[in-house]
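Question (not urgent): is this output format expected?
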Amino acid sequence: MDCAGYWTEYDQPQKHLFKVWQNCPAKEMTQMSVLRVRIKSGISSIFLLCVWNLVSGQIRYSIPEELEHGAFVGNIAEDLGLNTEELSRRKFRLVSVASIQYLDVNRMNGVLFVNARIDREQICGQRVNCVLVLEAVAESPVEQYRVEIQILDVNDNSPIFQNKEIRLDVTESTLPGARFPLERAHDIDTVNNSIRTYQLSTNEHFSLDIRSRGQWKSPELIMNKLVDREIKSSYHLLLTALDGGSPIRSGTAHISITILDTNDNPPVFDKSVYTVSVKENVPLDTLLIKLNATDLDEGQNAEITYLFSSYNEPKITEIFTINPKSGAIHLKETLDFEEGSVYEIDVEARDGNVQPLSTHCSVRVEITDVNDNAPLLTLNSISGTVSEDDPSGTLIALISVTDQDSNKNGYIDCSISSNVPFDLKSSFSNSYRLITSALLDRESTAQYRITVTCKDRGIPPLSTSRTIVVNISDINDNAPRFTQPSYTAYVA
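Got this back:
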């Protein structure tokens, strides 16, 4: 039978849960990992998982962002099965490639705690899964543990409209059912805490519909009843954006509608959403798409002008340009897949009347990755000197490697220079340890220069190399000796 598990509640008052594994062969259960989840009440739940082929083990915690300094994450010594007495003796420590040490360990009691402010949006942006990856290292003997800290989103940001007032011009000849796209709000929290819906203040002439454009929810104003400018020339409504957090946060914008006469046919696009795919290394001024809208009116009322609407994010006009006459969208700034893989552009087509009518479409620009980032090597815990009597397997350095590219462009293979008594062992994904692979002899070789090379799998591949210098210290393993077995001297 396959190795399988089920949840069991072992402490009803504390609501602790274990995942118990059945049918796991003993030889496959040599390593376990612990997942500790901080829940709202502050009580922790521990989950045990089967893990195969790890160097020493792995552990996973889950905590909300914005915890105060010193907040308890978990007892890492207890969860890894280590005695607190040996933490200092074995130089137990955390290793991270991050410039900020967000978490630290108290060697006196083995408690893992928050060491710096953790802002999920600053660390991970709007990625659904936000994980800080650390390595816990203990020496004598060397043991490594992969520590993953899942950062849970807290609803700490309210929806915001770029413009607090949305102005619309509506002709009195507009028929019921007409739609007017509105500016969407922005919320930097993740999906669950991001924009969930919109609400419109009560009125008899207009209602609200919410449409999905790509990954965003966009509000649209719908006319339900004919308007008469001579009776009422303007309307003032309140648009509210609500997020999905608990408690719910909201943001508002005022809608000012001016009722106009004449010009009863707005421009029309043949699609509501256009999709363009382009490589990140295309040159500036590249044509991305040429839009075309038509207008049933004649003369000046049929002359169409294309422009980026005010509903776009500011960076859209920094990266792209649009020809107002032809509707051609060109690249204005160099693209970078690592900075943005998708751009949603709201384009407005406006006719030439003094009181123009307009329509909108969405252009979705999808950026494909190019192998333009070489692997980044980080050396940790380097031992510059090794005794010649140290055993095979002695740790020389911990090596972490990252690549900002995606897919095969981000897969990395590492190797070291040949004909040296050292070996490069993979610990976890993109994590290595450099160790001795044979006994050393200072009298034979007193110093080694080891080149570590990491290469991605892009076409063509990019690589990075670092050199580690290791000096061999002497021990008294050679007795004095004469250069010849006997000497003859003559005395006059």
